Amino acid sequence: MSAPVISLERPAVPKPASVNTRQRTGGLVVENVCKSFDLKGETLPVLDDVSFSVAPGEFVAIVGASGCGKSTLLRLLAGLDTDYEGRLLHDGTPIRGTDLHRGLVFQDHRLFPWLTVEQNVSLSFTNTEVPQAERRERVAAEIDRVGLNGFEHAYPHQLSGGMSQRAAIARALVSRPDVLLLDEPLGALDALTRLRMQQELRRLWQDEGITMVMVTHDIDEAVYLADRIVVMESRPGRIRRIQNVPIAHPRQRGKSDFVAIRDGLHADFVQIEEGLEPVTQVPERVQWDGAEWARRLAL
User: Fold this and answer.
1) pLDDT tens digits for 171-180?
2) Most buried residue, 284, 290, 291, 297, by most Cβ within 10 Å?
């Protein structure tokens, strides 16, 4: 089955006034990307003709069932895997390896247990020529930004799960990347901590004006945070559709436009599990808002 055609043109998304509009770098292009693995002598396709773009300063969430290639795609964008077909561009330059201009945060914080918060964050400067004085200043600034003042000399085992993830985010931000890639960064947290960390991520994104691409299984989380949501299906991983979220921040989960988009995505995933076509066919270049989803789901 051929993959659906996805326009590389991004629909206009309203930005709240608080977003830092000075950011002009961090654009990404994913163009006709295919990826496969060798499994016991056989080729296992993981990604099939995946195409979309991310504008500088945009927040894009990628959702889909386990095994649809979300994390694989994020690894390709990070430059951790260069064995693929198609094109990946960062500000027009092909991605051919890791780069400090692209930060990465995993589901597991991956802090070194024998290092303090301050030392873990400082690791981002390994093999760089940043002067020691500037390193100390930037590390202190990022620790303050994620709200870990007073815990600079604490070890990971002395931190809560949410605090550990904030330290991991500080480590990713201290190198001042154009793009922050997040691979289910809140998946291991309890429900209340996860809600607080969603608010922290939104605040950081608005304050920094940084491009964020986040993989998540949580549809509610995706609608709360993202400008657009890339919906993927499995075997092999393809883009099913791209959902625009034209709701100003801060978003309220109980409002009708939020609920309509969230419920539309939930309905779509029921169709994916049952192997059916999308709930409704979205014409090419059309991105529905919450009101349109509410109208069509009521039909």
Assistant:
1) 988 888 999 9
2) 290
Q: 123, 139 in Cβ contact below 8 A?
A: no
For residue 13, is pLDDT > 90? no
> What residues contact 169, with CB distance under 8 A and at least 6 apart?
105, 146, 180, 185, 201, 204
Burial letters for 124-148: b for 16+ Cβ neighbours within 10 Å, e otherwise? bbeeeeeeeeebeebbeebbebbeb
d(CA 190, CA 136): 32
Are the C-beta atoms of 122 and 198 separated by less than 8 Å?
no
The token pair that represents 208 in the structure block = 């920094």
With H, G, I as helix, E, B as strand and everything else as coil, classify residue 36: strand
Cα→Cα distances 21→56, 146, 201, 213, Å? 10, 21, 17, 18
- Distance, CA of 62 to CA of 212 (rounded, Å): 11
Those residues with Cβ within 8 angstroms of residue 299's Cβ, 6 or more apart along the chain or in another chain: none
- pLDDT digits 0-9 by tens, 254-267: 999 999 999 999 88
Q: Which range is least confidently modeled, 10-19, 48-57, 59-68?
A: 10-19
Phi/psi for 20 (5° steps) reads: -70, 105
Cβ–Cβ under 8 Å, residues 58 and 228: yes
d(CA 141, CA 146): 9
CB 59 within 8 A of CB 214: yes
